[in-house]
Write a structure and sequence with these properties.
It holds the Pfam family GST_C_2. This is Glutathione S-transferase. GO terms for molecular function: transferase activity. Keywords: Transferase. This protein has 227 residues and is an alpha+beta fold. It folds into two domains: 71 residues, 3-Layer(aba) Sandwich (Glutaredoxin); 115 residues, Glutathione S-transferase Yfyf (Class Pi), Chain A, domain 2 (Up-down Bundle), CATH 1.20.1050. Helices cover 57% and strands 7% of the residues. The chain has nine helices and four strands. Helix 1 runs antiparallel to helix 6 and helix 3 packs antiparallel against helix 5. The mean pLDDT is 94.
Length: 227
């Protein structure tokens, strides 16, 4: 195993891409190792929960995405600016926003991801419940976030990285399920904010890699069906 930082997981994972953006933004060299959740039993499963992503370091593995982000901040080069605000209360606010995004937005819609992305049957009751909870989560975010620039103010932070990976996934899910206007209808400033995030170099790289992985997967599936 390389002594360089190695991120295990899939470019289709929001949490994987959250870590990848942090690695890019903090200018930390890293390698990517394709790894699917539930790949064998512990320790072959990679993480104690069997989930992805996880990070391999020379000193051991780290398994939860936010713990990984905090570790990357601790080891970032002195030439790289922190993606946490300098002020203690503002740092706490940044971490708070990450939790809002992951607990009240991402978790709210996870039950309908199998229908949107993996071809499972859509349960209308689950969809209605997910949309109701998503609307509540958007109201919570609006009360605490600055959507006119970056979430925490004038500087891009880890909260913005979390916002992109989760909200862009939610946006794709909503489009697939015929709810394309949902985000803009309930939080009008959100589409413009996402456009700004999409222009960031780290975002462009992550999205390019995700699209390339999607093309490779389709090619593999076509070849498999042809056989």
């Amino acid at each position: 195993m390389s002594s360089r930082l190695c991120i295990f997981g899939s470019p289709f994972s929001s949490y994987y891409n959250k870590i990848k953006i942090a690695l890019i933004e903090l200018d930390l060299p890293f390698e990517e190792v394709p790894f699917m959740p539930g790949a064998g039993n512990w320790p072959e499963s990679g993480s104690p929960s069997g989930k992805i992503p996880f990070l391999h370091t020379a000193d051991g593995n780290i398994y939860e995405s936010q713990a990984i982000v905090e570790y990357l901040e601790d080891i970032r080069p002195q030439t790289s600016a922190s993606l946490f605000p300098a002020n203690p209360i503002e740092r706490a606010h940044c971490r708070e926003l990450i939790q809002y995004i992951e607990l009240y937005l991402d978790a709210a819609v996870r039950p309908v991801y199998p229908a949107a992305f993996w071809g499972k049957t859509l349960n209308q009751d689950e969809l209605e419940e997910a949309l109701k909870n998503l609307e509540k989560g958007l109201r919570t975010l609006e009360r605490r976030a600055n959507l006119q620039q970056w979430l925490c103010g004038e500087r891009y932070t880890h909260a913005d990285a979390a916002a992109w990976v989760h909200l862009s996934t939610i946006r794709r899910m909503l489009k697939i399920l015929g709810q394309e206007e949902f985000l803009g209808r309930h939080l009008p400033a959100l589409p413009g904010y996402l456009e700004r995030l999409a222009e960031r170099p780290s975002t462009r790289r992550v999205e390019a890699d995700r699209h390339e992985a999607g093309r490779a997967l389709k090619k593999q599936q076509s070849a498999s069906q042809g056989n």
